[in-house]
Specification:
Strand order of the largest sheet: 1-4-5-6-3
Pfam families: 4HBT_2
CATH architecture: Roll
Oligomer: single chain
Strand content: 25-35%
Keywords: Hydrolase
GO molecular function: fatty acyl-CoA hydrolase activity
CATH topology: Thiol Ester Dehydrase, Chain A
CATH class: Alpha Beta
Radius of gyration: 16 Å
Largest sheet: 5 strands, antiparallel
Shape: elongated
CATH superfamily: Hotdog Thioesterase
Protein name: Acyl-CoA thioesterase
Family: Belongs to the 4-hydroxybenzoyl-CoA thioesterase family.
Helix content: 25-40%
């Protein structure tokens, strides 16, 4: 299974009054992880948009296990959990430098035409990208 990794330095602006990362900022980190995974595979999300497609999030599920704090560096690990005809599920772990898990997550996405929001398979949009996702997906349909 292919896992992409991206280090993130926790910034002060990402924390709440308790000194820990505010829960909504984890969603931003998931996007950073997805973008890094896509780049590591040789593709770009911006390229997808340039061709008239976008990939909206249809579901996000995050489990918080231990707090990340200001000044700490965390690692976002991202992989393809499942890739089907129309839906892709990304898997994530956000871990502390010592390897303990701060959170786990999944996000589901579809590809749609930017102007109509009609779903389209990644295979039709970019067969090479689709083939790579099929190859590395943890779960195969």
């Amino acid at each position: 299974m292919f896992i992409s990794e991206k280090e993130i330095e926790v910034r002060y602006a990402e924390t709440d009054q308790m000194g820990v990362v505010y829960h909504a900022n984890y969603v931003i980190w998931l996007e950073i992880g997805r973008t890094k995974l896509i780049q590591d595979l040789g593709f770009t999300y911006a390229g997808l948009e340039d061709h008239g497609y976008i990939s909206p999030v249809t579901n996000v599920n995050i489990t918080y296990k231990s707090s990340a704090k200001y000044g700490e560096t965390v690692i976002v690990r991202t992989w393809i959990e499942n890739h089907g005809k129309l839906r892709t599920t990304y898997g994530y772990e956000i871990v502390h430098k010592d390897g303990t898990i701060a959170s786990t997550a999944t996000s589901e996405h579809v590809i749609v035409k930017k102007d109509t929001f009609r779903p389209i398979s990644l295979k039709k949009v970019d067969p090479a990208w689709d083939a790579k996702y099929v190859e590395i997906a943890k779960v195969h349909e």
